[in-house]
Design brief:
The protein is an alpha+beta fold. Helix content is 38%, strand content 22%. Strands 1-3-4-7-5 form a five-stranded mixed barrel.
Length: 247
């Protein structure tokens, strides 16, 4: 009786070992699978975070627009409305894209009461000739503008200043911002799409949308599933056993 039990145990062990015939691939798969699953889970967490951020942004943008000069604290995406007039000078912020098309974001200083604000009116496409800047309307009459606050990314570099024309700029240097004599040089106003002087806005409020993170998560989980299938096909004898109707 003991001999029979021992023989059965050995046969069972041999069958278990025989199921895996490629141990290096098995070890590689065992190490890679948790990584793929972890990356997929991380992307799902990022999607949830971005959804919460998007909801917070939408809530803030839906608030009543205010004059930023009367706000005790300025915050990103705070809606604002100002009455005043633009300076005549346009600044073309170079190398800005919309849907893969290269162009410029148009910057102008807006005077409201005794305060001056840097306004980003939106985007225009670049022309075929880089030496010729695209034509943009220059509002002369008093205007009411609406938009939201957005931080200015100042660049402490000589290359960020204006070119020889004084209009095309590669970035906003501290020296250029000082010339504008702004009320709050660390903040700009990005116009809303329905503002009278707005160009193409289509502002990207988040660097990556929740849907993009979810799509990446699906890709990582699909790779994990593909890895399992590959391991079963290449590192085990399951296919042969199923073919021979042993299972």
């Amino acid at each position: 009786m003991s001999m029979t039990v021992q023989t059965t145990s050995v046969q069972s062990g041999n069958a278990s070992v025989a199921l895996i015939h490629n141990w290096p691939l098995t070890l590689f798969s065992a190490l890679l699978l948790p990584l793929l699953l972890g990356l997929g889970t991380w992307q799902l967490h990022r999607a949830a975070e971005k959804s919460a951020m998007q909801a917070a942004i939408d809530t803030r943008l839906s608030a009543q627009p205010q004059d930023p000069a009367v706000l005790a604290q300025l915050q990103r995406y705070t809606p604002v409305r100002l009455l005043g007039y633009y300076d005549d000078q346009l600044y073309y912020l170079d190398n800005r894209t919309r849907n893969g098309t290269v162009g410029y974001e148009i910057l102008q200083v807006f005077n409201s009461a005794e305060h001056r604000w840097l306004v980003n009116r939106g985007w225009v496409a670049a022309g075929a000739d880089r030496a010729e800047l695209p034509a943009v309307t220059r509002p002369l009459a008093a205007k009411v503008i609406t938009g939201f606050l957005y931080p200015v990314a100042a660049v402490a570099s000589a290359s960020a200043g204006a070119d020889a024309s004084g209009a095309r700029i590669q970035g906003l240097s501290d020296a250029l911002l000082a010339q504008f004599d702004l009320a709050r040089p660390e903040w700009s106003i990005r116009l809303s799409a329905d503002s009278d002087t707005a160009l193409v806005t289509d502002w990207q409020l988040l660097q990556m949308s929740p849907q993009r993170h979810t799509a990446y998560a699906v890709q990582w989980f699909a790779m994990a599933a593909a890895l399992v299938v590959l391991w079963l096909y290449a590192a085990t004898s399951l296919r042969e056993r199923l073919k021979n109707n042993n299972y």
